[in-house]
């Protein structure tokens, strides 16, 4: 389970860092070529660079969590990701005015994945109840 958790945290970090680099370094390209971004005008270089920098910061925290696998660090990184991902999804669910149906469905699916990934990873950190086999082997030891 630890391998799956670590892989998921690295995936989360990669996504955040990739978005962060593109949005910070090339905000116009991020606006023009990232799916769905230009459907919610107007363009603001300042806003996109800030969004990119926020993603870089969150990516750094997530990389530290992936490297250390410290329980508090993992929980903090995933909770921070959710504090962004949930309101982001909720906003977009109610702002599909300029979207074709396929665009709205695609964006909703991607942003729902962005919520479900950290929720799933958090679930992997929950303690597992002891099974009958593990309880009996502890008693005999």
Radius of gyration, Cα only, in angstroms? 19 Å
Largest sheet: none
Residue-averaged pLDDT: 91
| Overall 3D shape | globular
DSSP strand tally: 0
Structural class: mainly alpha
Q: Low-confidence runs (pLDDT<50, min 5 residues)? A: none
Strand content: under 5%
Series of secondary-structure elements, N-terminal to C-terminal:
HHHHHH
Share of residues in helices: over 70%
What's the tally of helices?
Answer: 6
Through-space gap between termini? 25 Å
Number of discrete domains: 1
Describe this structure in words.
The protein has 141 residues and is mainly alpha-helical. It has one domain (2-140). The chain is built from 6 helices and no strands. α1 (2-25) crosses α2 (27-33) and α2 (27-33) packs across α3 (45-68). The model has no long low-confidence stretch (mean pLDDT 91).
Kindly summarize this structure in a few lines:
With 141 residues, the chain is an all-alpha fold. 79% of the residues lie in helices and 0% in strands. The protein has one domain.
List the defining traits of the structure above:
mainly alpha; 0% strand
Secondary-structure map with pairings?
Blueprint: H1 2-25, H2 27-33, H3 45-68, H4 71-93, H5 101-125, H6 132-140
């Amino acid at each position: 389970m630890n391998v799956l958790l670590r892989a998921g945290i690295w995936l989360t970090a990669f996504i955040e860092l990739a978005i962060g680099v593109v949005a910070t370094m090339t905000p116009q390209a991020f606006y023009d070529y990232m799916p769905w971004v230009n459907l919610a005008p107007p363009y603001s270089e300042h806003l996109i660079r800030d969004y990119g920098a926020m993603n870089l910061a969150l990516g750094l925290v997530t990389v530290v969590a992936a490297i250390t696998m410290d329980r508090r660090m993992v929980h903090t990184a995933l909770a921070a990701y959710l504090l962004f991902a949930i309101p982001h999804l909720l906003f977009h669910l109610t702002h599909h005015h300029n979207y074709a149906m396929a665009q709205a469905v695609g964006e909703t699916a991607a942003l729902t994945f962005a919520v479900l990934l950290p929720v799933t990873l958090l679930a992997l950190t929950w303690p597992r109840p002891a099974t009958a086999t593990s309880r009996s082997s502890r008693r005999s030891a």
